[in-house]
Amino acid sequence: xxxxxxxxxxxxxxxxxxxxxxxxxxxxxxxxxxxxxxxxxxxxxxxxxxxxxxxxxxxxxxxxxxxxxxxxxxxxxxxxxxxxxxxxxxxxxxxxxxxxx
Length: 101
Known about the structure:
The protein has 101 residues and is mainly alpha-helical. The protein has helices spanning 5-8, 14-23, 36-41, 44-48, 66-74, 85-93, and strands spanning 26-29, 53-56.
């Protein structure tokens, strides 16, 4: 089954979502322009486990995504203040997201 594949590039299958959200739950941080309630309503498996999903409404808009963090890190640009120092240190010391030639 396709899961969130069609809209989000094959991130999770429905089976993965069932296992993760059903057993452990999910925290969603709302970003400007997103409507997590509408997305959950429109996705059968997420809707089934909606009681296991907590939506965090930030008082300040947070438009930083993991995609942006990976892109910045892969281009050698600073991610300081976007992630905790320990995360930045881990990414650097393990050479994550470095472009390979």
